[in-house]
């Protein structure tokens, strides 16, 4: 790639089921096409977040955000370094920022769409893609606002080795709950128990999983659901009275063109339970509350942040399906560059 060009990855076609190699395609762009206007900045992207929600963003369906258009840069949150600024911009060259830059090496962004990153003690800038970013906010408000978790209760978390699930487990322990995590490999279960301190981790691929679930859980008070499907049905069979089910995601069905419905929902009636979905962006004004508590956990070591880093923007399309096969442990990110390496006059 010459100094006068950069790469972007755009949506080529909408997959019916699994994300395929030709779902996305790479485009070469000229720097001359980037025009920095008033109250804007040019950003060199350093890291991009890969999230299960991306599967929904490329569906042509009504949702909380409009679908990514064919030929449009794939939507993604990320970190970057300000390379140059337009008239009246509140940013300065060299500022580290977070924004929805998308799958691109460089982006021009409005000031209002970005925030300057200042890592608190005990954290790094990378934590703004995980514990101090959208995964952390999702875990915090899903658990505390929707789940209403109380000390002494039993919390069960599916997808517990993923970015959101791992944070929910740790926030649950901080809140004084008994925490049972569900993951898909023995290594992930060992990590949950040994490193994150969950009371019990269960491998859903084990032939004795259902029996193990009943023995370890007994009856649950809060189920934080990241996967949906059969595991959600199983959780519905083990509800305490007034249990709360937090519907964060349903990754088991994201690639299924005809997902199956639930069969165990009638226990919601008999146990006076609640099942509620939520979207983290609805809590944006309250983010500082969550950031303060999670930052304190990072500083005292009670919250740990783990990353699975894939090198190079060009590997983003092949890395995204890892989220649906369970190949990653912790927060999946793509490293795009180290730091701003050039000064551009646009």
Automatic annotation (TrEMBL):
It comes from the Eukaryota. CDD domains: PGDH. GO terms for molecular function: oxidoreductase activity, acting on the CH-CH group of donors, NAD or NADP as acceptor. It holds the Pfam family ADH_N_2. Keywords: Oxidoreductase. Residues 19-334 form the Enoyl reductase (ER) domain. This is Enoyl reductase (ER) domain-containing protein. It comes from Suillus placidus. The lineage of its organism: Eukaryota, Fungi, Dikarya, Basidiomycota, Agaricomycotina.
């Amino acid at each position: 790639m010459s100094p006068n060009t950069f790469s972007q990855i755009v949506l080529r076609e909408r997959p019916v089921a699994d994300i395929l190699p030709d779902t996305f395609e790479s485009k070469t762009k000229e720097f001359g096409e980037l025009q920095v206007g008033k109250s804007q900045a040019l950003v060199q992207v350093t890291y991009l977040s890969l999230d299960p929600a991306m599967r929904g963003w490329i569906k042509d369906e009504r949702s909380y955000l409009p679908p990514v258009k064919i030929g449009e840069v794939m939507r993604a949150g990320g970190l970057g370094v300000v390379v140059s600024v337009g008239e009246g911009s509140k940013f300065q060259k060299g500022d580290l920022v977070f924004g929805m830059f998308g799958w691109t090496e460089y982006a021009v962004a409005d000031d209002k769409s970005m925030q300057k990153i200042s890592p608190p003690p005990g954290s790094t800038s990378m934590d703004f893609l995980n514990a101090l970013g959208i995964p952390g906010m999702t875990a915090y408000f899903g658990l505390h606002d929707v789940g209403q978790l109380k000390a002494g209760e039993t919390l069960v978390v599916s997808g517990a080795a993923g970015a959101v699930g791992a944070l929910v487990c740790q926030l649950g322990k901080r809140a004084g709950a008994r925490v049972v995590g569900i993951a898909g490999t023995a290594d992930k279960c060992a990590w949950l128990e040994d490193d994150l301190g969950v009371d019990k981790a269960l491998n859903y691929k084990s032939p004795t999983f259902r029996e193990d679930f009943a023995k370890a859980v007994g009856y649950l008070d809060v189920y934080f659901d990241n996967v949906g499907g059969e595991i959600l049905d199983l959780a519905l069979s083990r509800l305490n009275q007034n249990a709360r089910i937090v519907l964060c995601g349903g990754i088991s069905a994201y690639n299924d063109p005809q997902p199956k419905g639930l069969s165990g929902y009638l226990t919601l009636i008999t146990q006076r339970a609640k099942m509620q979905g939520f979207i983290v962006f609805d809590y944006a004004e309250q983010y500082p509350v969550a950031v303060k508590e999670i930052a304190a956990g990072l500083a005292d070591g009670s919250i740990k942040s783990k990353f699975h880093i894939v090198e190079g923007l060009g590997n983003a399309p092949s890395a995204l399906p890892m989220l649906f096969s369970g190949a990653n442990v912790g927060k999946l990110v793509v490293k795009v560059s180290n730091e701003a390496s050039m000064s551009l006059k646009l």
